Amino acid sequence: MTELPDLSLLSHAEKDALIHALWARLELAEVRLAAAERRIAELEARLNEPPKRPDNSSLPPSHGQKPNRPEKGQRKGPRQGSLGRDGGGRPLAENPDQTVIAKPAHCLHCHTPLTDADQRLAQRYDKIDLPPIKPIVTRVERYAGSCPCCGGTTLAAVPEGMEAGTPFSLNLVALAIYLRVIHAVSYRRLSRLFTELFGLAISEGALDAAFRRAKPSFDAGVGAILARLRRARIVCSDETSVRINGRTHWNWIFQNDEVVIHVIRPSRAASVVAEVMDGHRPAIWVSDLYGAQRGHAEDWQVCLAHQLRDCQFAIEAGDAIFAPRMKALLLRAVIIARRHRPLAESTRREYRRRLDHDLDAIMALVPTNRHGRRLRRRYGKIRDHLFTFLDHPEITADNNSSERELRPTATYRKVTGGFRSSWGAEFFANVRSVVGTAARHGFDAYAAIKNAVTGDSAALPS
Fold this sequence. Notes:
Blueprint: H1 12-47, E1 144-146, E2 153-155, H2 170-182, H3 187-198, H4 204-229, E3 234-244, E4 247-255, E5 260-265, H5 270-277, E6 284-287, E7 299-302, H6 304-316, H7 323-337, H8 345-363, H9 370-382, H10 400-416, H11 422-439, H12 445-454
């Protein structure tokens, strides 16, 4: 109805029908107006909220504004290993390859000859250089002998590593994998690096073929790591997004003090956890509040680092009743967690009793801010899992170790833009699994990759 009809032409019944229709439209308009007013109030409230930053939310550090660093004061004191030189510097090498001894033959002023007794050591420092880098090419000439008696042909044996096939050694392949996975060097730049720095021409296709030949070695290592994970008592997990061929996938991490497993899947659901754990139910699980990472163990430790950031956001958003006291309690728990492992069981039990008692008092508060009410509802549900670390001293109160394991994945994603194939994503995950596990046993990344490529499993758990 765009205009009011002539009421004089309408009967009483038609007027009643018109009134009822207009009344219904008025009621509908009032409902919509109330919803719009609530939406406007919600949006206005959000306008007054603080922006989310890495220190008050789960945003990664790369999304935060970096403050300018203060000016550094000039370093004072003699350099380690030097004689009389001010300022800092690297320590002298314990076993230099060669030593240059410089002694004056005569006095610079009066030209009097100087003996060894007239001199003292005034300075000692190192000069470091790299030798020329060039590939070492070994020509293999393999003979086949024909037997004059039976006519059979015998092909000469060659040393290990000199078999026919690819011309590139396992050491060279290990270096290429190290640069590709650990330092996110693209195929094109990797090919240029070998050509310009080492004087060795390797095409992008040759690099890809070398990686494919090496993949079974990492698959075997991941199999051993996975078997160990499925016997573990403690598992920590987290995930971050990756891109494969223009589609979003998820890099899951499962780790503890012994092993690390990276798994890249198109799903962020709990089915990924079920697939990896294959029916194993550990005693303790450490993770954030994401639902897919919950309910997989007998007990659960919530990451308190995430909770501290959420409390900080609620404080900045105006909650002055619940979030400040909850943050103070969580900070106390984090401080206790830094030294809880050597404590006696009775001491840890007393700490937990005090924390639970203070938590009771905080949960009795009635916040008026919506963020404070949200946090109160959350901790009412998960309060039994905030201080699990005091019952199990072998775990921490946060999940920072999982986040540190995922940081290289985020860096790789930003540098490369993502993976071009599922094969490349799986290869990356397997290499990161082997490298992360080896780091827990004292091996650096290159040593772990080289051991995997050459078949040495010393860096992996048995």
